[in-house]
Amino acid sequence: MAESYDYEEILEIKTAWYYYMEGLTQQEIGERLGISRLRVNRLLDKAKKSGMIQFHIRAGQSGRMLLEQKLIQRYHLKDAFIAPSIRKDENINENVALAAASYISDHLGKQSFINMGYGDTSSRILNHVASMSDSPVNVVALTGGVSYYLPNVQSSIFNIKLHLMPSPLIMQSSQLVSAILNEPSVQEILEMRRLAAMTVVGIGGMNENATVRQNGVLSYNDYMYLNVNGAVGDVLCHFLDADGNLVSSQIEDRLVSTSLEELKAMENVIGVAAGVYKADAILSALRGKYLDVLITDEKTAGAVLSKDTASD
Question: What region, left, alpha or beta, does residue 82 occupy, with left being phi > 0 and alpha being psi -120 to 50 degrees?
Fold first, then answer.
C-alpha cells in the first residue's frame, strides 16, 4: 500500500531542516516556503512535541549539566557553571578563571560595578574580564591588600577601573582596622559595594599551597591554629569550619575585609574555586549559604557532592 501524502508533515520536515541543518532564520524559511513567520514557529514547535526533532547532548556535556543541576537543587543556588576538568592541575585555576570571566562578561551590563575578593583565581578573573569587556568595568575591592588586585603585567588590555582599599589585608591591631575603616576614602569604597551587579569571591583551601600561605598573609603558627580549631577553608580571609561557621581567631580582629554577614546580604554572589583539594572549603561555603552561584571544574564538583553524600 502506498504511503499517504501528508502535506503538514512534509512542511514540518522542511521547516526543521532549514532551521536546524541549514541555519536559516524563521523569517527566511517563511519566505522560502511562502508561509508566515508565525506558521514557521508553530511548525517547529509541533515538530519538537511530536518527536520529529530530537536533541542529544554528548555524554561529557550531559554529565556536567547533571552535576550543575544537583548543585543548584541541593544548595538552593541561582546557578552553577562547571568547566571541563583538565589533566594538568597546574593550569586548573587558569581554566576555571577563564570560564568564570566568560560567565561574568555574559551577565554584565554597560558601566557595571563588580565587587571582587582577593586571591589567585580572582586576580586571573580580573585580567580576563578586562580583556573581554567592550566598555569599562568598575571593580570594587572587598578587602584590603592593594597588590592582590593589580593587573598582570602581561595584559595588553585592562579595561577596568579599580576602586581599592588603601590598606593591608591584615593590620597590626584591631584599633588600626577601626581607624582605616573610618577614613573617608575607605568609606567611599564601602558605599560603592551597594552599586555592584554581582560579587565575585574566591574560596581558599587549608593546604600549604593556599594563597594566604604563599603570599605570607598567614604564618605557619596561624595556619596550625586554624587547622587545629577545625578550619577547612576561607572566604575573604574569614576562616570557616565544615558547616560554614566562622572559626574564631585573633586574625579576625585585625582583618580589613567585608564581613560574612555583609556578604550574605549581597545579591548574586559568585564563588569561584577549582581543585579537588578545595572540596571541603567549597562545601563549607555552600553550607554557610554565602553563595548564589558556584563556578568550578567537573572533578571538584563531583568531589563536593560525594563528600556531602558521604556525610549524610
Answer: beta
Mean pLDDT of 238-263: 94
pTM: predicted TM-score of the whole model, two decimal places = 0.79
DSSP at 118 = -
- CA 69, distance to chain mean position in Å, is 15
Query: Band of the pLDDT at 93, cuts 50, 70, 90?
Result: confident
Cell of 111: 558601566
Torsion-angle region of 64 (φ positive above 0: left; ψ -120 to 50: alpha; else: beta): alpha
The candidate with the shortest Cα–Cα distance to 266, out of 198, 164, 186, is: 198
Give the whole-angstrom CA distance, residue 261 versus residue 202: 17
Q: Looking at this protein, which amino acid is placed at residue 14? A: K
Dig out the grid coordinates for 213 from the structure.
Answer: 600561605
Which position has the grid cell 517563511? 30
What is the H or E stretch that residue 83 is in? Answer: strand 79-83
Give the N- to C-terminal CA distance of the chain in Å, as an integer: 62
Tell me the three cell numbers of residue 103.
560567565
Ranges of H-type helices in the chain? 7-16, 26-33, 37-50, 59-75, 92-106, 120-132, 174-181, 184-192, 211-214, 220-228, 250-253, 260-265, 279-287, 298-311
Among the listed residues 219, 215, 211, the one whose alpha carbon sits nearest the alpha carbon of residue 236: 211
CA distances from 193 to 20, 166, 263 (A): 44, 16, 10
Torsions phi, psi for 24 (to 5 deg): -75, 150
Q: What's the angle, vertex CA 68, arms to CA 65 and CA 71, rounded to 5?
A: 155
Tens digits of residue pLDDT in 117-130: 988 888 889 888 88
Q: For the beta carbon of residue 145, count every other beta carbon within 10 angstroms.
A: 20
